[in-house]
Amino acid sequence: MKIDPDLSELANLVDKMGAKRVNFVMDHSETFIESDFSVQLEEGIRDFDINEIEVKEGILFYKNEQLVLYIYDCYKTVDDEPEDLSRYHVSECKTIEDMKARGRYERYIATSRKTGSFKISLFADIERSHKEECEKDLIVCINCLKVLNYNGEKEKDNKQRREISDAFRIGDFFEAYSTYFKEKPKYTCDSIK
């Protein structure tokens, strides 16, 4: 919808001040075009310099994009259920801290995907002889929800925590929260070994 504002009062004020009128055009046609970076980050294939990450109120951003972490290269098969696959992370939880301490943090990649479905590499056969990339729905990490006390997670029992986890929708989360990681993983889908 085109908006055509009436600026005649502003023009009258310019005349009263004795200033010269100038013509101007309000063209914001390119303002809301999604950047290539945003598209690539959503797919989890964008590698970026950790030194360019900004911390705003304790939350990490890169070009104003929030991040989710997950493990791309899983040691599971394409037939495994989501409950058997690695979880995705929305905060700096004890799982992430443990992976850093064990030198396994580099297994994670970053994405801004908001669907709950992620590109991962899984074994294509039971013999585990070759892998293939596929999209799988992953489950959010309960430890992340505890850190954030998402929907009162800390005060809940295990059954209630599972219900909160099952009802969790990453898109809704991105609208209400911001993610927080102290450092970005080294690899993306394209650069993982």
In short:
The protein is α+β, with helices and mostly antiparallel strands. The protein has helices at 8-17, 36-43, 94-101, 142-148, 158-167, 170-176; strands at 54-56, 59-61, 68-71, 73-77, 108-111, 117-123, 131-137.
Describe the structure.
The model has no long low-confidence stretch (mean pLDDT 76). The N and C termini lie far apart (48 Å). This protein has helices spanning 8-17, 36-43, 94-101, 142-148, 158-167, 170-176, and strands at residues 54-56, 59-61, 68-71, 73-77, 108-111, 117-123, 131-137. It is elongated and about 80 Å long. It is built from six helices and seven strands. A three-stranded mixed beta sheet has the order 4-6-7, with no helix packed on it. 26% of the residues lie in helices and 17% in strands. By secondary structure, it is an alpha+beta fold.
Features:
alpha+beta; 193 residues; 6 helices; three-stranded mixed β-sheet; single chain; 26% helix
